[in-house]
Structures are given as structure tokens and as C-alpha cells.
Specification:
The protein is mainly β and 151 residues long. Helix content is 0%, strand content 45%.
Length: 151
């Protein structure tokens, strides 16, 4: 079962998020997951003008979950980055070919060890090889309690 959400953002860039797994929710751009679970978010970035994929070759990508949008990145509940953003491909991986505009964000149980169940805000920001930066998806991220807290 795959559920897709979308949000149009500035400068004619459009992002779509799909979640893998059976326990998912999609209300606009809301993602719901249990603490201590694995989750892969599949993201497609298209031009809002003509729906063509955005070339992610050389792109830096950040996925951030915060309690409030005004929180610093250092205070983020979860943050993932691809290699060009200072992380690695086990956090965010651009699909091949990068010209298809797709990437995956990998969440693992250890990402939520210090997170309290509740509602947060998330965003995905990319900087393309031409140095233009876009927030391609924003929304609510809900962490629910897990029946078992063993990672």
C-alpha cells in the first residue's frame, strides 16, 4: 500500500512524498509512524510548470523534523542529509538516474530513541547544482507510541 501526498511550493518546484509499509496516514502532507520503527519515504520532485522531473544530479538534500519551525537545526528531533549536505547515502539516497527527480529518506529505530510521541513539523529542502534552494515538502509528522520500545 502506497500513499502519496503533495504540496506545491515556491519557484515552480513540486514535491511528492510516498511512504512504504502498511501502517501509514496521509492527510495532505502528514506522515505518521510509530517510534522505534523503520520507515522509507520516497520523494519525487517535479517542476510545477510542466510536471517534468527535476534533475537531482549534484543536489544537497535535508530532511528535518522539529517541534516548532522556529527551532534551530541543532534542536531538531530528527535530521537526515545526503552526502553533499554533510550526511551519507544511508540517510538520504538519490535514485539512479538522478534526472528522474527521485530520492529516498531512510528512518531507522535509533532515529527516534530520544523522541517523545507527539506531533511535529517536517520539511525537505534541496539545493540543486545551480545553487538554487527549494523547500519541496512541508507538513506534519506524527510519532505514535510503540507497543514495544526495543529497537
Amino acid at each position: 500500500m502506497t500513499i502519496t501526498g503533495s504540496l506545491q511550493v515556491s519557484d515552480n518546484i513540486l514535491g511528492y512524498v510516498s511512504e512504504e509499509g502498511d501502517v501509514m496516514a496521509d492527510e495532505g502532507n502528514t506522515v505518521t509512524m510509530s517510534l522505534y520503527d523503520d520507515r522509507t519515504l520516497e520523494v519525487v520532485v517535479n517542476s510545477a510548470a510542466d510536471s517534468t522531473p527535476v534533475d537531482l544530479t549534484g543536489a544537497a538534500i535535508w530532511f528535518t523534523v522539529k517541534q516548532q519551525t522556529s527551532d534551530t537545526d541543532d534542536a531538531a528531533q530528527v535530521q537526515k542529509k545526503n552526502t553533499l549536505a554533510g550526511g551519507d547515502d544511508t540517510q538520504i539516497e538519490i535514485a539512479s538516474p538522478a534526472t528522474d527527480g527521485m530520492f529516498s529518506v531512510y528512518l531507522v529505530p535509533s532515529d527516534t530513541e530520544l523522541v517523545t510521541a507527539g506531533s511535529y513539523m517536517y520539511g525537505i529542502r534541496i539545493t540543486l547544482s545551480n545553487n538554487k534552494t527549494y523547500t519541496v515538502v512541508r507538513g506534519q509528522f506524527i510519532f505514535t507510541s510503540s507497543m514495544t520500545e526495543a529497537p
